[in-house]
Amino acid sequence: MTEQQQTAVPAVPEVRPDVPSDAVRKDRRVLRAVLRWTAAVAVCVAVGAATAFGITRMDRTDVPGLATEPDGRWEYPVLTRPPLPSGSPGPFAEGNTAGTHHADPRALLLPAPKGAREDKALRGSAGWAAKKDLLAEYAAKDDREELGQHLTDHGLRHIAARGWTMPDGTRTRIYLLRFDTAAVVDGLLAPYLAPYSAPKFPLRGAGTSANDKAFPDAAVVDDVERVVYEEARPYGGEQVRHAYLAAGDTLALVVQSRKGGARAVPFQQTVALQGQLLG
After folding, report:
1. Contact call for residues 132 and 80 (beta carbons, < 8 A)
2. What is the DSSP string of 12-44?
3. Burial letters for 55-65: b for 16+ Cβ neighbours within 10 Å, e otherwise?
């Protein structure tokens, strides 16, 4: 990415993979996803490919509507995938039928953006979160018990978690759940955990949530399945947005909440970047 491009979209970093050569084809697809995402967020509307291509090369003051008012993106550090053990394939490499992430899941968590106050307690002991901390995200006691037993029955191995709060009060929590195979994750995601229309298990404080149909296609990451929900109006003291991502043997839950309304752009950005790290 050129210096001029970095100036145009400073808040959406490039994911720099450090993976074996058998994943080069996959990395090219991720790069294309990054370019589509940066273009979509910069204009915040669906535009033609030629227009988006031009905007990635324009200074912020050259883009109508962005000269004096920020678009809400957060400034994340440059993202780099952790190195894989020698000879280990990427999760979507040919021959890796189990979809195994050979990298440490704690290293696959999206880092906190600039200005965030990190929730150190969420990281748990040695970077592993307790299952009870994940289940605390869900509203109903019966749901927590059912889901907790289901995770145990499906061989949940680890939970890596990270959370932070931004100066505007937006709270983010990300959980990466590691299982034995991609088949287990696929069976959990839908229709059990995340049906398309509405989540099976409502989150704490979320009220009624429904599928977020406005989530941009440009934020799609190849091979990473995604189901996104938005709390419907009227919501209470805060609005909750959340997404499930299925990437090989890993299931991710991304939650953002904010008093008065959780903004769409930083949520879309966070979900897209976490998906790129997992892909």
Report:
1. no
2. SPPEE----GGGHHHHHHHHHHHHHHHHHHHHS
3. bbebeeeeeee
Render pLDDT for 171-203 as a digit per residue (tens, 0 to 9).
999 999 999 999 999 999 988 999 999 999 999
Angle between helix 264-278 and 24-43 (nearest 10) = 180
Q: Is the pTM of this model over 0.85?
A: no
- Strand bridging mode 79-80 / 15-16: parallel
CA 87 from centre of chain: 27
Bridge partner residues of 163 (DSSP):
173
> Please, are residues 67 and 60 in contact by the beta-carbon 8 Å criterion?
yes
**In sequence order, what E strands does 64-123 have?**
79-80, 117-118
Tokens of 121: 């307690």
DSSP state letter for 121: G
Task: Determine the residue type at 157.
Answer: R
CA distances from 193 to 78, 178, 219, 279 (A): 32, 15, 22, 21
CA Rg value for the chain: 18
Instruction: Please enumerate, as own/partner, the contacts of 49-58 that have beta carbons within 8 Å and a separation of 24 or more.
Output: 55/8, 56/5, 56/8, 56/9, 57/4, 57/5, 57/8, 58/8
240 DSSP β-pair partners: 257
Tell me how far apart the alpha carbons of residues 3 and 133 are, in angstroms, rounded to a whole number: 41
